[in-house]
Amino acid sequence: MPDVDAIVELAEEFVKLAEAYNKPRKNMKRRWSVKYKKKINCNNPKGFSQKQYCKRKRSGGKYKEN
User: What CA–CA distance (Å, rounded) separates 27 from 25?
Assistant: First the structure.
């Protein structure tokens, strides 16, 4: 049976990572949420930003860190 303390520690680490995932990068006011990104239909993107997002997603590129 797994150690309860280890599971709690792992859960706390996961929460910290999840909170950091949606924090804005340097010099940015806000960032798209994961929920919003999943909702984007790349077969019919709406607007310039979504088109660029889908273009980069198709090419397999990663967004800048920090």
Answer: 6
Structure tokens at 45: 């993107």
Amino acid at 57: K
CB 61 within 8 A of CB 55: no
Q: What is the pLDDT of residues 18-33, one digit of tens each?
A: 766 666 667 767 778 8
- pTM summary value: 0.52
Identify the CA nearest to 35 among candidates 21, 52, 49, 51: 21
Residue 65 host element (H or E) = none
